[in-house]
Design a protein that fits this description.
Helices cover 6% and strands 40% of the residues. It is mostly beta strands. The chain folds into two domains: 6-54 and 69-101 and 197-414, no CATH class; 106-189, Elongation Factor Tu (Ef-tu), domain 3 (Beta Barrel). Strand 27 and strand 28 (389-396) form a beta hairpin.
Length: 419
């Protein structure tokens, strides 16, 4: 009989039709969520497991031995981790932020009259309308087509800020080629946008399957909620992502002793094929200034999931999710006192990350906007002979709102999520 190998393990998941958990009952796994569909998930590792509370007898006996040990409440714990790529983790990001991906925005001269470009100022100026009221936001990735400047057609631009009457002046990256007012054009955002909402939070739950196909054994972890994420963006190397998971139970599929045969998901959708984000590609802006000395960024969103035991059943009644606590850390070469001053003066700053999979101007990409953060330290380690580094942990806070920025703690744009 063969032994299971990691390369033969398949991790898949499926969203339940409803995110509601019934406190005193479990759904029939055969029909909810059901084995049809599913999505294979790219991964580096999974630590999902069924955990149980255990109880050891404290009885003192003349034979000086322990005579009883029991299993109690069960729950699913662990995480799934991988290398960060666009589209791949869209459902898990949506569950973490408890929001909903918003559709793309498409505008033309009908809404905005005309568009002019200023390379030195790195701006686009519209002749009419209000681009913010029409749906454009800071952090959106968009493309211009049908303009008189052919070289700017179809490349990625990032909206960095809005100003002027009716928000008609938009700062963008990269700087556009100079262009006089053009009255025939199309502007379309790429992919979808997601932010942590102030109201209407959505609870979602998933079934995860780990199928060891070389030994025909599947473990299905049921009614799982996502507890947030940890994103690591090193200066050199692949960006990584980890999603903590907490759920209610596990079912075995192996075709033995009356159990169903593996796998549970009969024909899940193939994993995505998008490229992986490398931190050497893209852009980092802190407080509106492009930074070239950042050596690493990590971001953690923690929903602090919990699941308490109750009397009379061996599974938890609910997986509770707490506040969206977004924290992280920036490391940078010690260049000047600006970031240290932001810490000493308790200034609020913003971070905008632009991650790309390639260097092409229309590369698949993701932006992450933290519109309001406070630094909690500014440690400069004076050591060694090389470059000196400053470590800047931070706490993200809900933004009050401004033209083109929602009242949120974090926003993500993913260009590869179908509009």
């Amino acid at each position: 009989m063969p032994l299971a190998e990691g390369v033969s393990a398949r991790v898949s998941y499926k969203k339940y039709a409803s995110g509601v958990i019934t406190a005193n009952a479990e759904p029939d796994i055969a029909t909810d969520p059901g084995g049809a569909g599913g999505q294979i998930l790219r991964r580096v590792a999974s630590t999902l497991k069924l955990a149980k509370d255990t109880y050891q007898s404290n009885e003192v006996r003349n034979d000086r031995q322990i005579a009883d040990f029991r299993h109690g409440t069960r729950r699913v714990t662990g995480s799934v981790s991988g290398e960060l790529s666009p589209q791949t983790y869209a459902d898990l990001f949506e569950a973490s932020l408890r929001g909903t991906w918003e559709a793309a925005v498409a505008l033309t001269e009908v809404q905005l009259t005309s568009v002019a470009a200023d390379e030195d100022a790195s701006t686009l100026t519209f002749g009419g309308g209000d681009p913010v009221a029409l749906g454009l936001r800071v952090g959106h990735v968009f493309r211009l087509t049908d303009t008189s400047v052919v070289g700017d057609s179809g490349i990625n631009f990032i909206a960095l800020g809005f100003s002027g009457a009716s928000n008609r002046t938009m700062e963008v990256y990269p700087p556009p080629t100079d262009m006089t007012a053009d009255t025939a054009f199309s502007l379309a955002t790429v992919g979808k946008r997601l932010s942590a909402p102030s109201t209407g939070h959505v609870s979602r739950k998933f079934a995860f399957e780990i199928f060891n196909e070389d030994i025909d054994v599947a473990r299905i972890f049921t009614e799982c909620r996502i507890g947030g994420f940890t994103m690591q963006l090193p200066a050199s190397g692949m960006s990584t992502i980890e999603f903590p998971v907490m759920g209610r139970n596990m079912q075995l599929y192996d075709g033995l002793e009356g159990r169903p045969a593996a796998p549970y998901f009969a024909a899940p959708t193939a994993e995505t094929t998008t490229g992986i984000f490398a931190a050497v590609n893209g852009l980092v802006r802190v407080n509106g200034v492009t930074q070239g000395v950042i050596t690493g960024v990590n971001i953690q969103l923690n929903l602090n999931p919990s699941s308490e035991a109750v009397v009379g059943q061996n599974f938890v009644p609910e997986v509770f999710l707490g506040r969206a606590n977004v924290t992280g850390q920036i490391t940078a070469f010690f260049q000047d006192a600006e970031l240290i001053k932001a810490f000493t003066d308790e200034d609020e700053i913003s971070i905008l990350l632009y991650l790309t999979t390639e260097s092409d101007p229309d590369t698949p990409a993701m932006t992450i906007l933290l519109p309001r953060i406070k630094l909690s330290d500014a440690d400069v380690a004076t050591s060694g002979e090389g470059g000196q580094a400053v470590t800047l942990p931070f706490q993200a806070l809900k933004f009050a709102g401004a033209p083109g920025i929602d009242a949120t703690t974090i926003q993500i744009v993913d260009t590869q999520i179908a509009a």
